[in-house]
């Protein structure tokens, strides 16, 4: 009897366990881990500066439109899930909502954004969500644009982890009610399988709740797309289970492994999408155009503007598709355009604009991607044309391809207004050996210490200018940098050994925007270096570039303010007391930008850093500062 009871209990338990496993399997059919995101797990565990950004790209659902509690955004819930498994990681989400669905995403995530000045594909994990914006796009277009976007993200950085997310739309709900898988999800899952990408089907999870009567569609979403707080709570439950499964799908690796792209799943896919900046040398202008003008909306940092009917832009290119991205408003002009000499077609201003609007639009598709084509875009009516760039799935010739590095920076500078700067006469008093090597010859070992802004300084290639001015001298430039890092870091734990002394500098150049306003930290680094290498000469640079919120821009004065304890003044005092050379680069740098007639974004590569033009301001100022005897 006892044995029979035990057997019955055991059989019953097995039934319960089996039922639980079946239920778990049923609950898990809305996601696929496909090996997880091991590279991201590595970065979560090995938390270092600049690698914890997750970039979400999508639409209004991603932005949390309509939510009373913004913490219910599924992106926020995903970050919460990652933090649960890696509580010490500095997980930061960046969200990029946009029009145009995956088609525009293909261009916006390309490997260079000189006009936007944004870097979407930073960090290590891309979460792609275009179901809502792609709902009115033909499935053929979805196939190629979503695949092209996936490939762009991986081409940008091969160690990027990727996740596809599908949120619910009315069309998807109808398909699930009819017992069908929506076409969009079929195609997306084909791509996810082909590229080994985890996917989270929030649409299926929510649809099953609605079909089961646990919540009405009206209660789930007030507009059919964006979830209410109740709907977002349903998404949050699915996200939590998905993240747990992702973390269990793979152990944390000892190092990251680059993803190798297979051949495209769809042969017609073209993954060469890019935004060609309007200032690209291959874009020819006729008529009156004003470059570097402020944009009324983000993410543009500057625009090319014309109010002259008949003004044209011409671009020669190779590729399968050409389009334009601009800003349109009620006062905007219409365009006419022609490709390869065909009859002009009209591109009118959209009706019922509520204000300045970003407009990405395809002009021509299906071109022979190997042939050369020409686009002519003309301002065709009264009003303002505000051009950001051209959307090209293809290539343009590199105007600098045959130039040396020195010729290239000269060409960039030649297209700018010349810099006028007269440095102080006594600037060389504390660096006599440096001046001697420049004038008389020899090797000058120059260590640049600081952050990514000092990376811009290095990127200006100013040493090539110095060696042209002083051909007897061989300048050895060593960029010893760490992102977002200043002397408050370098002064600790004898870090001067690895960052400075091991390079045996003749001249140490300290600058950047990451010294936290602490000139005494700069003094500490100087003293530590000289304690071990007393003959090291030092040049201190005041900050350039950065956010307009930063002190050196927000409280800028052309002459150093000696009445307050500001960083420029404190650096000047440290230089004088420690017998260092001092260059208040902030003053001529910001003065030039203020007087240029261009918006700050014209000189920016992103929200903080210089582009090629900005780097040339730095490089030319250093060349002028190092001018000896009027040479």
Describe the structure.
- Helix content is 36%, strand content 20%.
- It has 631 residues and is α/β, with parallel strands linked by helices.
- It folds into 3 domains: 24-249, SGNH hydrolase (Rossmann fold); 273-395, Jelly Rolls; 405-625, 3-Layer(aba) Sandwich (Rossmann fold), CATH 3.40.50.1110.
- The strands form 3 sheets. Strands 7, 8, 9, 10, 11, 12, 13, 14, 15 and 16 form a 10-stranded antiparallel β-sheet that branches.
- A hairpin with a 5-residue loop joins strand 12 and strand 13 (345-347).
- The longest helix is centred in the first third of the chain and has 26 residues, at 2-27.
- It is globular and about 85 Å long.
Strand residue content:
15-25%
Q: Quick check: average pLDDT?
A: 91
- Could you list the spans in which at least 5 consecutive residues all have pLDDT below 50? 1-27
The secondary-structure class comes to alpha/beta
Quaternary status: single chain
Number of domains: 3
CATH superfamily of the largest domain: SGNH hydrolase
* Biggest sheet character: 10 strands, antiparallel
Cα gyration radius (Å): 29 Å
The level of helicity is: 25-40%
Instruction: Describe the global form.
Output: globular
Distance between the termini: 108 Å
> What is the C-level CATH assignment of the largest domain?
Alpha Beta
Shape-level CATH architecture of the largest domain: 3-Layer(aba) Sandwich
